[in-house]
Amino acid sequence: MSGFSTARLKMVDGQVRTNDVTDRRVLDAMLTVPREAFVPADRQALTYLDLDLDVSEGAAKRFLIKPQLTGKLLQAAEIGEGDNVLVVGCATGYLAALTAKLAGQVTATECDSALAAKAKAALNLANVTCKAAACADGDPSAAPYDVIILNGATEVTPEALLGQLKEGGRLVGVSAESRPPRAIIVTHTHGEFGHRALFDAAAPVLPGLERAAAFVF
Fold it and tell me: Does residue 210 sit in helix, strand or coil?
């Protein structure tokens, strides 16, 4: 077993399972997708640590969110094998690669066009389409979605994304609209959106989903 394979097993056993992730499909995906393939070569030693991993190559900071939070969000999303899923702010594509193991079709968006190109090359999967797009915009062309997953946090209500949810669909991510930040699930039922907090969680805020700066005299 290679060093990365051993580290991947330890990540799942020590970070993911111990945080109440019991969904066999999610665990299998995290055991088989090589996270190191989505990390720049000079940072691969950090691949399997319990941290939000900076994979930025440009001015804007972009991250792969912590493995345990990744697993918990995927479990909460309850992705079905035929589901059409949008991954928002995919960075280099790791969360999209995991989602592709669970869903029928995946659209992944990334606001940094250079990172989007890297994600597209790293993913190269038949059921994933990767696009450069603002996080707040989603991708209406492939909507409506059964599931939308945020690879990070939002400080505002993502109205455009919610508008791309199918009836019966759900959005999962971290809401930092109030303190403490929490993982949430938003469900679309009978034209209404229901918000439910799942657990306390912190993640980097996605570009374009920041709270507007308050005006100061």
Answer: coil
Of 122, 126, 129, 89, nearest in space to 106 by CA: 129
Residue count of the chain: 217
Query: Nearest Cα to 153, choosing from 86, 205, 87?
Result: 205
- How far is the C-alpha of 12 from the C-alpha of 158, rounded, in Å? 31
Q: Report d(CA 182, CA 159) in Å as an integer.
A: 18
Q: Note the pLDDT of residue 58.
A: 72
| Cα–Cα distance list, 197 to 10, 42, 49, 100, 173 (Å) | 29, 37, 26, 25, 10
Total-model pTM: 0.95
Instruction: Give per-residue pLDDT as tens, 114-130.
Output: 999 999 999 989 999 99
35-42 average pLDDT score: 96
Query: Can you list the pairs that 60-63 forms with residues at least 24 positions away whose Cβ atoms lie under 8 Å?
Result: 60/111, 60/112, 60/207, 61/204, 62/89, 62/91, 62/92, 62/110, 62/112, 62/115, 62/207, 63/91, 63/151, 63/152, 63/203, 63/204
Exposure b/e, 105-127, CB count within 10 A at least 16 = b = bbbbbbbbeebbebbbebbeeee
Residue pair 112/55 in contact by the 8 Å Cβ criterion: no
**Among candidates 69, 66, 49, which has minimal Cα distance to 8?**
49
pLDDT digits (tens, 9 = 90+) for 125-182: 999 999 999 999 999 999 999 999 999 999 999 999 999 999 999 999 999 998 999 9
Question: What does the DSSP 8-state code read for residue 156?
Answer: S
